[in-house]
Amino acid sequence: MTSVSPSPVPPPPPSSSAPLLHQGSAGPRAEAPLLLDTAPPRTLGFRDQAAFWTNLGVSLIGFQSAATVLVVNGANLSVPAALTAVVVGTVVGSVMLGIAAVIGTRSGAPAMAILRGLFGTRFSYLPTVLNIVQCLGWGVFELTVIAMGAHTLFGGGPHWLYVLAAGLLTTVMTIRPLGAIAVLRKYVAVAVGLAMLFFTVELLRRGVPAPAHGSWKGFLPATDAVIAVSISFVPLAADYTRHARSTRSSFWGAFTGYTFSQVWCYVVGMVALLQVGNDSDRIFSTFMGITAGWVFFAVLVLREADQSFANVYSTAMSVQNLLPRVDRRVLTVLLGALVTGLALLVTDFSEYEAFLGLIGAVFVPLSAVLAVDFFFGAGRREGGWDLSEGAPARWLPLLPWALGFAVYQLIYPAELTGWASGWTTFWAHAQNALHVHPQVWTSASLFSFAVPALVTWLLTPLLRRGR
User: Fold this and answer.
1) Is 4 a residue whose pLDDT tops 90?
2) Does residue 239 form part of some domain?
3) What would the 3-class secondary structure string for 169-238 be?
4) Where is this region: Disordered (predicted)?
């Protein structure tokens, strides 16, 4: 396991997952395994994966998230600065996504089960629980956004009905996930492409007003915000790329599909926001205000279910790392009901940016430690990682992960309020005590990736001995 092989990955999976996976069903109509210890069918080619990640890169949330790029800490970015932040942030995040995709294909295991090899089974439960919380949060947010889009589309209506309908569709998709991905490739990707092209042309015809007093100040925080959106999919990637036919198709499918669509989504969102004075609450109305815009907006609202599908399904995959003998169909139905219920109750998403910051702080350094140890550390040993249920604890990789988390928080602490306000206060005191304060050249995402990657690389002689 010394390099990323471009050749097809045949079943059974590589030796690193041999202690975990037993041969399952194969064939073009095979579905995802029901239990954790069953080898996945290798049915996804480049087009399947590129279409899947292209769909995930376009979202109603992405249009609104453009506001986090145009205005940073109360200051407007210039259009060139904002565009550059979107491209750079997306490319960096997509590279991390592509690496995680390759590891999923090489191991044949779900994302959180892969962490058994990095930390040992019991220590893998910590990032697993964090990922469950993340996926549940995103799932609730996605159902809420779908309901908001449907409310705009139909000019009103009961919020609860839209949430229930979106939750039901989401849950049905998770029962046959590979079938859902096939539908996304054959039909949804084309419809989404046409909708995006329509809105791009119509919005550009109206002109692009420049933000007042725009500058490059805040460029790196804006880039970090874009990376955080991309990185939220890194702990999910292997849940899908474990079904890929080759490492080449998994990397390039994830990288090209997600990069292209997220940049396009942010650009359309930025243009729409500039036209409404950067008021994200009015962005959906902008789409509906275009002649025949409701038709294409309906496409975007309907396809938003692939976002909630990915989050609910990956929540189930994460839970299976804790409960490996529970049928994933049971888990997805229960989790779909839970996410739907929470979406009916939760209405305040005012701390969305803080949520993104915490996601980045946890998973950016984790992806660095994961990649370095897989390709240069214990993953290079004969037999590779131990992904079995009895994989022994590995303390050492926890050190660079914790260090990377601290670096991220010192540069860009999550600004939480209410019961969690003490968290923000702690890191503010830490900044003052260590004389570390954000500068124009500091990037939380890049620094918190580089530092743990370097530390993990320096520790590789010990990591190869399984410590």
Assistant:
1) no
2) yes
3) HHHHHHHCHHHHHHHHHHHHHHHHHHHHHHHHHHHHHCCCCCCCCCECCCHHHHHHHHHHHHHCCHHHCH
4) 1-26
- What is the residue range of 138's domain? 41-361
Rounded to whole angstroms, how far apart are CA atoms 312 and 306? 10
The beta strand positions in 48-113, using DSSP E, are 71-72, 75-76
pTM: 0.87
Residue 220, domain CATH: 1.10.4160.10
Cα Rg of the chain (Å, integer) = 21
Beta carbons within 8 Å of 149's beta carbon, 6+ residues apart:
60, 284, 297, 300, 301, 304
User: What is the C-alpha to C-alpha distance for residues 464 and 467, in angstroms, rounded to an integer?
Assistant: 8
> Residues 367, 234: contact at Cβ < 8 Å?
yes
Reply yes or no: is the peptide bond before residue 110 cis, omega within 30 of 0: no
**What digits encode the pLDDT tens for the residues 224-281?**
888 888 888 999 999 999 999 999 999 999 999 999 999 999 999 988 888 877 676 7
Domain count, the chain: 1
Q: Is 200 inside any structural domain?
A: yes
Q: Are 239 and 105 in contact (CB under 8 A)?
A: no
Pairing status of strand 75-76 against strand 71-72: antiparallel
Tell whether 395 is covered by a domain.
Answer: no
The strand ranges marked E within 69-136 are 71-72, 75-76
**Contact (Cβ atoms closer than 8 angstroms) between residue 221 and residue 72:** yes
Look at residue 454 and tell me if it is in a domain: no
> Which residue in 226, 227, 251, 231 sits closest to 375, CA to CA?
251
Reduce the DSSP state of residue 29 to 3 states and report it.
coil
Range of lowest pLDDT (72-86, 181-195, 296-310): 72-86
